[in-house]
Amino acid sequence: MPEALTTAAATLKERWEQFKEENPRVRIREAANQLGVSEAELLATGLGDDVIRLEGDWTELLKSFKELGNVMSLTRNEACVLEHKGAFEKVSTFGRGNHHIGTVLGPIETRVFFQNWAFAFASVIRKGSRVLPNIQIFDKAGTAITKVYVQEDGDLEAYEQIVEKFTSANQSPNLEISPIDKVVYAEGIDQEAFLADWAALEDTHDFFPMLRKHKAQREHAVQLAEGKFTRKIANTAVNTILEKASKSQLPIMIFAGNHGNLQIHQDVVKKIVPIEREETRWINVMDQKFNLHLRTDLIANSYAVEKPSKDGIVTSVELFDENREMIAQFFGLRKPGQTELTDWKELVAELN
């Protein structure tokens, strides 16, 4: 049984219940912002009801997702949400400490950075007649990393076994929330040396080590390379990419996420739905097993980026928000050892 709620936690629970009554359509992430708390703290008010706190070896928790069968995996940042339906087919983990990572391959594909996993909860969301058992992961600031929802044809028995295995002895709603450590980047970068390293790239996966070597912030790096490897393009470029890729059925890759999980789409996109609601603008992909929701009004800058590789130039489109944080990246679908799709290269070349 959970510990008795403290006065603060009890008060938050009451505020949350009242908020839901007055704002039934507002999602928990936005509700947390309006209530001035983290999403994890708001979810934790349900401990003892439909929420259970989990703990244990995060790598083992990730591996256990294979047992769930058909799920919906959701990963997001402030401006972009990716949702995939399918199974966690192949899960691998590597390294340790700050370099402890996981990879998921198959219908759901992610890159996992365990050092930023801090809290986990199992919960049951009820929407009318629908019941959505899920597992949610948060960072130490209480911001959602990823959420996994068991579908109607998923394995509910496996879900219950996972929850039982990872249930924490601590079921208190009082979370030790702390701010995310600020990354310190170099203020002055030797542009000539940096661009020489960029020109010497042989694999796109070498780009991140290059950034670390020069202590370069991602958008700053793109700006340093402007005119040689990058060019600024209109923030409407993402709409053009999705609409043209859909029309021609050009297979693309979409990378979006946060510091704890990067989710990846590798396929064609079909149903593109732009939406405007008051001051917000969205571009959406509404396919059977994949949804993307991207707030285009939060895009501050967009760039076409070229990276050398052994397989030729690899071209991407990268979107950043006003805080210089990456929103999403778009590529033409390719595998190591393959050259870039000509149709993708031509599509990006036409963006301005």
Automatic annotation (TrEMBL):
CDD domains (UniProt xref): HemS-like_C, HemS-like_N
Domain Haemin-degrading HemS/ChuX residues, every copy: 216-351
A Pfam family recorded for this sequence: HemS
GO annotation terms (biological process): iron ion transport
InterPro entries hit by this protein: Heme_Transport_Util_sf, HemS/ChuX_dom, HutX-like
Protein's name according to its UniProt entry: Haemin-degrading HemS/ChuX domain-containing protein
Origin organism lineage: Bacteria, Pseudomonadati, Bacteroidota, Cytophagia, Cytophagales
Domain of life: Bacteria
